[in-house]
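Need a sequence for this fold. Nothing fancy.
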């Protein structure tokens, strides 16, 4: 095994901040196109030209996210793209250095390198001075990156597979229940298909209601998910019993109805939600994936119903319960479920595997990056 030494970011990457060009929102409107326009936390627009071509690492330069870490502060940008002046632009001196930088920043305490009391900022000088402990030999650095990248590649493959599976179910739904809907199908309100439960947050005056084993779903937990396995907040059994009538069984359909309206998920386990979410507990299992796809299909209607002329979107439980859906005949529903259920079962299995791989990666990451665990080079 090789010795480890302390490098600085500028030892393993070049910085390209001088090449970035910020564009105002008005300028971007006039230059609408297909090239990603990046900011501090990812893509914020698409425009008609690019500055960079290749694989780079973007690192947030400013913003509250530098402290809260709600989204990654170091992420890849690939291909042809544009960057504003809120993200540093790094390019590893070796291809695998891009991955090393991203993995290193996942566990890095940035606070010693930040300036600005109100608006956190990671300036160029501090960024380039950040120390990074790595094996002295590049062959072992590469081996570390390859181990972690192999896990990320598998995770990415499962995510892409899940998107394909869900798209297949949604396409089938639109074809059979929208395009080929039969005139004799009667419309029924959502309350016909299931019990509607609006979530609630237990009193914060009783801390023992929180930090238990029962998922407490809020809107941030729903983004990009088909099934919600893990949540930021959880309830104890006492917290659950304080509002037992708000308990939703596994695989209920959860729809965000306040502020961010129209996110649709299924909860993997028995759960609770907060008051921004209405849940449908199907009265028949046959309705489950029909209702899920239906809610995804009426996104625009949910948005329109929630607007109501107010600044904050709000679709109340009463109006939500009255939303009309066609009631298909049993044969059509059975045929749909014969195809849809295996698709969603596979998504569920894939998401569970993703959790396992992410836990493995996140356990290995600090050990590999600190030298506690070594890899053969």
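Here you go.
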């Amino acid at each position: 095994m090789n010795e480890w030494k302390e490098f600085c970011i500028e030892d393993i990457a070049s910085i390209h901040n001088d090449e970035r060009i910020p564009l105002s929102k008005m300028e971007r409107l006039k230059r609408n196109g297909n090239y990603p326009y990046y900011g501090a936390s990812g893509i914020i627009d698409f425009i008609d030209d690019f500055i960079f071509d290749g694989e780079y690492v973007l690192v947030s330069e400013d913003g509250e996210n530098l402290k809260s870490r709600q989204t990654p502060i170091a992420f890849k940008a690939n291909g042809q793209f544009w960057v504003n002046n809120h993200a540093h632009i790094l390019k590893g001196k070796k291809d695998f250095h891009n991955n090393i930088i991203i993995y290193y920043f996942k566990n890095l305490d940035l606070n010693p390198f930040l300036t600005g009391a109100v608006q956190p900022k990671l300036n160029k000088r501090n960024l380039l001075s950040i120390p990074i402990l790595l094996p002295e030999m590049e062959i072992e650095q590469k081996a570390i990156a390859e181990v972690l990248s192999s896990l990320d590649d598998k995770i990415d493959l499962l995510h892409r597979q899940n998107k394909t599976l869900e798209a297949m179910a949604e396409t089938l739904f639109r074809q059979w229940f929208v395009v080929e809907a039969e005139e004799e199908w009667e419309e029924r309100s959502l309350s016909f298909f299931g019990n509607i439960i609006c979530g609630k947050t237990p009193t914060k005056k009783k801390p023992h209601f929180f930090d238990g084993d029962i998922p407490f779903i809020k809107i941030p937990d729903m983004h990009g998910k088909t099934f919600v396995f893990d949540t930021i907040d959880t309830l104890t059994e006492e917290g659950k019993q304080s509002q037992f009538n708000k308990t939703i069984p596994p695989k209920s359909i959860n729809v965000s109805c306040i502020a961010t309206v129209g996110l649709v998920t299924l909860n993997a386990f028995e759960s609770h939600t907060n008051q921004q979410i209405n849940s449908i507990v199907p009265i028949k299992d046959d309705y489950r994936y029909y209702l899920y796809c239906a809610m995804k299909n009426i996104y625009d209607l949910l948005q329109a119903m929630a607007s109501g002329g107010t600044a904050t979107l709000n679709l109340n439980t009463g109006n939500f319960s009255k939303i009309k859906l066609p009631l298909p005949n049993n044969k059509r529903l059975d045929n749909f479920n014969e195809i849809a259920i295996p698709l969603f079962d596979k998504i569920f299995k894939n998401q569970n595997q993703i959790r396992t791989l992410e836990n493995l990666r996140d356990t290995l990451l600090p050990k590999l990056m600190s030298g506690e665990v070594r890899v053969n080079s």
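For context: The chain has a mean pLDDT of 94.
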